[in-house]
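In keeping with the milestone schedule agreed at the kick-off meeting, the structural modelling team has produced records for the first pair of proteins. Each record is given below as a sequence line and a structure-token line. The laboratory manager (R.T.) confirmed that both were archived under the project's standard naming scheme.
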Amino acid sequence: MDCTFCGKKIPQGTGIIFARKTGQVQHFCTRKCEMNTNKLHRQPRETAWTAEYKKVKATRITAMKHAKEKKAN
């Protein structure tokens, strides 16, 4: 199972499960991830230590490299 916020694997028998009134279930590896999602309303793609941020950053870097190559040609 993966953390809803940071994307890290959660070992079985650990972590926090949060159920919303709507029936949506969220799994968190730490209280830090839970608070970032529920209380602080942060987006994983904008938080530097999450897996989703790293994916977005890699995409951005490759796009910049391709733009520089096109501009050089």
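The second protein of the pair:
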Amino acid sequence: MPRAWSAKDERKYEKIRKSQVEEGTSEERAEEIAARTVNRDRREEGRTKSGLRSTMGTGNPTTSLEERTRRELYNRAKQLHIEGRSNMTKAELVRAIRKRA
């Protein structure tokens, strides 16, 4: 188990691992599931460096452009090869994406 884990994280890991093994999951897969679960929870709680980074995604395609973050709109504009996107505001990105898409 990683050094950055707290005692609580280690207990959670062991509980999940044992539960998975009892359900018939292989030991190797149970360890992976437990570690991923603990690391996800640590990331969501902001206890990891990677949890501080923002997503490089384009946002949920079912949400309106206005509801997405500027970073998500920028990434979508990048996919669409929209020039000048780095200097655009969120509203300008929305207009440019609608025009291109």
